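Suppose a colleague, Dr. K., hands you the sequence of a protein chain of 937 amino acids and asks what its three-dimensional shape might be. Before reaching for any lab equipment, you can write down a predicted structure in token form. Begin with the sequence itself:
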Amino acid sequence: MKDGYHRVLHGLNLYAISAVNALRALQEVWNNTPLSWVGTDPCGKSPWEGINCTNSRIISITLGGMGIIGQLTGDIASLDGLQSLDLSNNKGLSGPIPPSIGKLTKLSILILKGCSFSGPIPDTLGSLNRLTFLSLTSNSLSGLIPPSLGNLNELDWLDIAENRLTGTIPVSNATSPGLDLLVNAKHFHFGGNQLNGTIPSTLFNSNMNLILLLFENNQFTGSIPSTIGFMSSLEVLRLDGNRLSGTVPPNIGNLSAVREIYLSNNQLTGPIPNLKTLTVLNSLDLSNNSFDTTSFPSWYSSLSSLVILTMENTQITGQVPPAVFNLLLLQSVVLRNNKLNGTLDLSSISNSELKLVDMQNNNIISYKEIPPHIGFQITLVENPVCKGIEKTYCHPLQPNPSYSSPPNDCNPPMCSNDQVSSPNCQCAYPFTGNFTLRAPVIVGLGNSSIYSILQSSIMINFTSYSLPVDSVSISNPIRDANNYLILNLGFFPVGTNRFNRTGIFSIESALNNKIYRTPKTPINFGPYIFISEQYTHFQDSASSKSHYSIIIGASIGGFVLVMLAILAGVYAFRQKKRAEKADKQNNPFASWIPDKSSGNIPQLKGAKAFTFEEVKKYSNNFSEANDIGSGSYGKVYIGTLPNGKMIAIKRAMKGSMQGAVEFKSEIELLSRVHHKNVVSLVGFCYDRSEQILVYEYIPNGTLKDSLSGFKLDWARRLRIALGAARGLQYLHELADPPIIHRDIKSNNILLDDRFNAKVADFGLSKAIGNPDQTHITTQVKGTMGYMDPEYYMTNQLTEKSDVYSFGVTLLELVTAKQPIEKGKYIVREVRQRMGSNIQEVIDPFLLGTTVLNGLEKFVDVALRCVIETADERPTMGQVVKEMPKIIMQLAGLNPEVESPVMFENYEWNSQRFNHPYNDESPFVYSWVFPHSPLEPK
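The predicted structure, expressed as tokens, is then:
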């Protein structure tokens, strides 16, 4: 009996050794793992964050949204007791999914969504016969769907959407499995790929339990299989955005549980399908197909649950029966670009839910208006009824207002640093991300009541699971090209101003592909996907920090435990030696001695390699008096070279240093940049384990500072815009190699003593090594509000991404507003007011100073830079060519004449400014000039 006990104990300890080895191997290739990942026992008294254990066996890894960078290696296969693996929303996780993941035979949940994995979906996933939940959405996976996935007979959720998958949908035959065997699956989410061929009729059968079938935005051809009509449990059907043809099978009317049908943007023909039996249908979109010309179907008035009806460009004729508009739940009717005629009669309408009627471009000759007490948007533009008359309904629709969660009966405080006031008016660092609804029945982007319902629904769910969330905010709703509704969510912590890692893990886990449906309305908020932004405000507890001081080898007693400690010690020693060897191989300065031509010398053009003693001397021994700011990178000191030149010395903190290869690449890149509108790198220091960058000193701070401090006049703003454009054009077209900045914003445009603009901060920049390269595929980085939406959605970075950010900066220059302010997006705000109402968003200081010659041309250039499709934006070369010839001449300026230093021309708002090399801490500037703006005249 005793021998049996020892055998079991010995087996558990061998497993523990194997598990630690596997996690250590992953830790070697991963950056940003939790601080608690130290010691020899992930399941012991000081458990590792994100690791859950049962009887000393690791059963789950939950590391969503941790900003992990690296690859998922085959070492994961050693954790053969693993039941759940969630690495979602780590954009830095790239490379292929290792085939050895198929050895985790106990795995039931696998969530790798929102990462940057590439290559094929491993065929070995088909051996995970306990898998119930598989989410690979929003990666860069390519190739075919493995037929082996058909072996996953317990699978409930299959989400492979928003990748680059190609080929046909596999179905079973005599020799191979297929997805038709997944009869227990309720979710097929395949949208946003490049799948092609026909949708197999054998994919569906009456034994299937599918609830959501999402095949939108692929390249499917052929007809809609009639077998879809066999699935009585189906609630959402999305086949829109394909190349489907032929008639819609009549038995679609058998889908008695279906709430949403999207068949738009195909090549469907024949009659419009009769769907009068679908009494729970909320949303129907048949737009942009080639149906037979027919009168408006009368059976629509029997769809008692209908909320949204969209039939744009479907060849319907005749009059719309007034009874349709009185459906009790109907909120939106979009029938534009058809052949509707006669009289539109809304005079007897009683439906108070109706929000929108869009019947542009039809043949309506008269209109019986709505009763005065009923209010909604209606447009009859490009109908005969509007010819020669001025009525509100003869104007285009007004764009939806923006939305941001209001405070909950409290007064929002002024928050410091990066903190934000929560709906409960508490300053905190929120955990944020984009919440994308793939099939929402929501009408308007400014629909505050719907967002309030969603907000309450999430909080009810979070409270029921005792998650550490005090409140949830919703802001900036937009619809993307796929007709997905994207909301920005902010989660605020309970009883503190920041989350710990466990709190982030729990929120990520709770939001991983759940559906929220409110019980008292037909509004469906699912399915959705949550892609979080990396949380950088952890306040590590004392216990976490103390893990660094744990001494391995304390005797607990017992021979087996002593052996375990010895084995762990041997393993750690070997790993240390391997790490030291790898570090030496990867250190580009390992054999480089400054000022001597030996080893792998960085290829520099003009930048000087300073010794640490030199930099120390120039900065007055890094004295507090020379400290002019600090940020996440480290501290910035003002210094003076022996020749009297002022410099800014940016010294990295130990915890923020790059790898040596990255540091070498950055200084080589910056040393090649020489232009009057780009901040110059004077030199660097890579000595005594220090990483220090030395820049020219720019005295007048950032453009963002000046927009809120110095009140810049119109002429100087135009010259700043042109200077910044020239600097950016140089990076794109003349630098060798060309450079994409990736973080253009007002904080990264500095102003010298004559207020000339200089582009700065190349920490996120990417060089284009291949002249034929059209884009760089890389993880999304930048600043929200300035970020190119196409880059954000595709991970494909181009020079046009900088152009978009520059356009936002131009709008900021003319409005003095931040890109996202009080829930309003500057691009949308200016677009809405372009023309007669543009004065509403212009900086009030400008309106009271002078005539703004060239303003409309200036704003026009800015709006062309922020067109959503990158191909339609101008290049920076085109912007630079246009600005002097059009804007400057209209404003009566000579763009080639440099402005004198005239501080007395400016109003000054006394406040603390951010240092131009600083991304966090503010400080007060002080200059010596004839008349200080801080003193009365």
